[in-house]
Each structure stands twice: as structure tokens, then as C-alpha cells.
Amino acid sequence: MYEKVKAEAGGMGSWFHQNFVEPGKIPMLLVLASFVLTFAITRMITRLIRAGKGPFRNIGGSGGTHIHHVVPGVVLMVVGGFGAVGSSRSGVGAAVCAVIFGIGAGLVLDEFALILHLDDVYWSEQGRQSVEVVVLAAALALLVLSGFSPLGVDSLSEEERQDRTSLLLTLSSSFVFVLITLSKGKLWMALVGTLVPPVAIVGALRLARPCSVWARRFYRRRHRARARMTLREYRRVRRWSAPRRRVQDWIGGAPDDELAQRAGAPDPPR
């Protein structure tokens, strides 16, 4: 029994060494872990502050100015980023800088909606964008850790990588599909498609979304395409809007107006 457990532990150790240590992915793993953990802890603290529970309180500055945690987040990102550039790829210094950068990124992206709207929309409907960006960033980091590289370079053989024509054709075609997907209003598919090219191909071949650049440019006179596009968008929103909102509420907390509606109270003043 002891030998079996030892063999399994050795197998896990060799797997970790082969997939993370040898390719030099330890800093990326630390960035992702510290990023997700920081976001989770930050959301837990902010939800406790909103509920008036626990010892946590908002941090104020001079004159009663509320200091958002995006401020220390930016500082940590700068320190971790410059430290990572100035240190070696491996070693204790790179690991420490990776953790610092991950913590800063978690704090900054937790208030992404605040930066986007230049307003305190943390607990409003627009604040859901922060949760979406954090989930997307974590998903992209997981894809990178899984071995995916931008624009499908990892799918090429060593001979194809040395052939400049094949390399340029692969990069340019993948980039074109990503641009088409983005112009069709499918941001998530475009970003994921930079690492998984088939996703960008699917997004480029499917109908565009209403109000997208592609729809305004190419569907102006195509009435059937516009009708199909509108119907598909209606079905998509009807099918996925409620589940997506429930997941966002579970991760980041419901907006203030939704909580007020559930409690039967009037909406809080803006």
C-alpha cells in the first residue's frame, strides 16, 4: 500500500514537473492562482461590507474620499510587472513578482466596470462587466497553461514553423478570422479564438449580432439575414440571460436594484 501511494505521488510529481516546471509555466500558474484567489477574497470582503457584517470597512482618504482597491491594484501590477521584466524567467524573484502581479490584476479587474464607466458602478447593473472580464481573463490564462498559443502556432509542426510561408499563412488566416468574429460583435469568441482558432472560425461563419459593425455594413440590404439575426439574438438572450445572471450573482453578488426588488423595497437613489 505504501509503495502504491509513493508511486502515485511520484507520478503526480513527474507530471507537474513535465507540464509546468520544464516549460517554465510556474510564474503563469502563480499569476493565475493569486489572481483568482485575490478576486474571490475581495468579493467576499466587499459583500460583507455591503451586508454590514464582519470587521471590514471601506477605506477612506482625506476629505472622506473613498479609496477603491483598484488604486493599490495598479501599484501592485506596476511593481510586479517591472519586477518580472527585470528578473530572470525562473527563480524566487520571478515567483514573487508573479504573485504580486496576480494580486494586482485581481484587484484591478474586480473594478473593471468602474474604470470603464469612470463611475462607482460596483454594485450596479454595469458592475456585472467586472465579473465577466475576470471570468474571461481566468479562462484565457487556463488556456495558456493548457498549452495553447496565440493564433494556432502550437498546432504547427517543427518543419511548418521553419517554413516562413506556412507560418505566415497560418498566422494571417487566424488573425483574419479573429477580426471577422470581433466585427460581428462576438468579443468572447474572438478573444478565445486567438488561442483556439476553431472558435474564431465558427464565430466568423455564423451570423453577426445586431448593432455590430459587420451587421451595419453588410446586412443593410439583406432583409432575410437581418430577420434571422434578430430572431437568433432574441432566442439567445431568452435562453441564456437568466442563467448567466444567476452565475454572475453567485460569483460577484447581485446589484443593489435587484436586491431591492427582491426585498420589495424601492430602488436605492443613484
Automatic annotation (TrEMBL):
Residue stretches spanning the membrane: 26-46, 66-85, 92-113, 133-153, 165-182, 188-208
Keywords, sorted A to Z: Membrane, Transmembrane, Transmembrane helix
Keyword Cell cycle: no
Highest taxon of source: Bacteria
Signal sequence interval, chain numbering: none
The keyword Secreted is assigned to this record: no
Name of the protein: Integral membrane protein
Organism of origin: Streptomyces camponoticapitis
